[in-house]
Amino acid sequence: MSERIDVLIIGAGPAGVAAGIGARREGAERVVVLERDWDLGGILQQCIHPGFGLRTFKEELTGPEYMHRFIQQAHEEGVEFRTNTMVFQIDSGNNTVWTMNKERGIESLNPSAIVLTMGCRERPLGAIRIPGTRPAGIYTAGTAQRFVNMEGYMPGKRAVILGSGDIGLIMARRMIWEGAEVEGVYEVMTWPGGLRRNIAQCLDDYGIPFHLKTTVTRIHGQDRLEGVTVAEVDDHMTPIAGTERYVECDTLLLAIGLIPENELSRMAGIDIHPVTGGPVVNDLLQTSNPAIFAAGNVVIVYDLVDNVSDEGLIAGANAAKFAAGKIASSMRIPVKGGENVRLYSPQFVTGEADSTIFMRVTHPVETACRVFAVTDDGTELYSQRLRYARPGEMNEVRIKTEKLREAGNVSSITIDIQPV
């Protein structure tokens, strides 16, 4: 069975639902969002803590409350949703999308434009190769969050958290709320991986120890986790002999990073950025395949869901424009990262509209600093003074179309953050 669709969106998390709204508001007639799970909302289904929507809705919401508002808007706009639907193939030649659903069977869809919004996944234990056994009791922080918040199961009673990503910090507090003990959070870097507000609200407020430049070096236990060995590391992240100590625990939660989910992106044959791990996109959120757009954590991992939703709206609207023949391929002016930029997105600017480039620094700058963008000939396009810049928190560069036109023939743009 085959059918035609104006804009097809893969993934019904915050980016995907927003993309559906954006596409419909831009005039696309048939907008379909596919979701492999049984319900809409993506990861925010399990994020029952408050703190969402402060920028978008000007009030503090839980994850499900935030998503409910977007889902309601999408239904009002006439977006079509299909849950329990797995996309298992995107043909790179003709952009045919193959799906599987137990009621509808196997289908091929031929959309005029596609928006990829599959989100991201957590790094597993195998990514860091800690020696020892593989007993029960080791989970990614997101898996533990789903167990506790959605399934009603506690993963254990005495936990160690490796890594300081935001989900791990939030789960440290959640475990305490549910009556468990948290022995400590161990981070191999010299700075936290998550937002400072989560350090304060999830660790400091509950007296949970936080250890920088420290990692787990061995796992102990056969059937069930019994404990871990932790050790301090040097500047090369090598464990320092003599600093090892044993920590008794029955649960190890991993918050060691998130990776854009891009198996389908690779199937589609689009260019993947070697640092972000997501598709290379321009400020229209168009990939190297002009009919395919991408938005949210599938492109670059954000720290605020508001940015993910905003990007979804933009990608959906531009996909609708492409489906209507209003825009073509336009990667245009390449963006380059300066010496203190670890990753950034988008990687190209078209100059067709004002654009925002999101970036993370390589090393923290704890004094006054400046985020800026300059052209290849040194013309300044943007400059903003900051109190600090940290890898765990995104920064933004805003480029006005008017400024870009005034700069003349621009061959590249460099962004960076440096002390002042």
Concise synopsis of the structure shown:
This protein has helices at residues 14-25, 63-77, 141-151, 166-177, 196-203, 263-267, 305-323, 401-406, and strands spanning 2-10, 31-34, 50-52, 61-62, 80-82, 86-90, 97-101, 105-116, 120-122, 138-140, 158-162, 181-187, 210-212, 214-220, 227-232, 245-248, 251-254, 258-260, 292-294, 333-337, 341-345, 348-349, 355-361, 369-375, 380-386, 395-399, 413-419. It is an alpha/beta fold.
What oligomeric state do the depicted chains represent?
single chain
Number of helices: 8
Structural class based on helices, strands and sheet pairing: alpha/beta
Note the main sheet. Answer: 7 strands, mixed
Q: Kindly state the number of beta strands.
A: 27
Q: Which shape, going by the Cα principal axes?
A: globular
What is the CATH domain class of the largest domain?
Alpha Beta
